[in-house]
Amino acid sequence: MPTEKKNSGARVGLLDELRGFAIICMVVYHTMFDLKYLFGVNVPIFFDDWFDIVQTIFAGLFIFISGTVCRYSRNNLKRGVQCFFLGMVLTFVMPFFMEYTVYFGILHFLGISMMIFGLSEKLLDKMPALVGFILFILLYSVTCYVKIEYSAKTGGFIGLPGVFEWRMPEILYKVEVLFPFGFNSQSFASYDYFPILPWLFMFLAGSCFGVWAKNGSLPKFFYPVHIKWLAAVGRYTIWIYMLHQPIIYLIFSLIFR
Question: Residue 112's pLDDT is what?
Answer without folding.
Answer: 97
